[in-house]
Amino acid sequence: xxxxxxxxxxxxxxxxxxxxxxxxxxxxxxxxxxxxxxxxxxxxxxxxxxxxxxxxxxxxxxxxxxxxxxxxxxxxxxxxxxxxxxxxxxxxxxxxxxxxxxxxxxxxxxxxxxxxxxxxxxxxxxxxxxxxxxxxxxxxxxxxxxxxxxxxxxxxxxxxxxxxxxxxxxxxxxxxxxxxxxxxxxxxxxxxxx
Length: 194
Hints:
The protein has helices spanning 2-34, 50-56, 58-95, 101-155, 176-187, and strands at residues 45-48, 159-162. It is mainly alpha-helical. It has a two-stranded parallel sheet with strand order 1-2. Helix 2 (50-56) packs parallel to helix 5, helix 3 packs antiparallel against helix 4 (101-155) and helix 4 crosses helix 5 (176-187). It is elongated and about 90 Å long.
């Protein structure tokens, strides 16, 4: 899921300027509160560790397991194709002295075709797995956004920031565990009769 981490990093690069603005606003509000002043338009802020949410969300775990199985199947197929090519090459070298010039040339062309086929399979499989990983992430992100929004509305939060892009935040602002709990509750099977 390295690609997922890279995608999250790209998202963070977009969010960092917003975080800095929010952090400055939070500092200014905190200074006003220290002086006993309630700053006009005080903003309530929450923080969520998206990476932890991804890791502990049961849907992520289920999708990751299905993805691992698919990768294992592709690796088995690749291994089979590599063994087939190796056997073909070994047979060629064993029979090469007795083959005619035309038969040798044909066998070499066949090996080249098989090697090209193998390389094409590797590239296509790699691309397909990358697309699949992106699809899996795109299934999870809307769930997380929805739950973050619900929790923010319940608590009257106006801004929720990604924890990884902050240098510091009070643990009292962290809603990560609440997000994980709500996501997993929504995924839990409903008892009969509900």
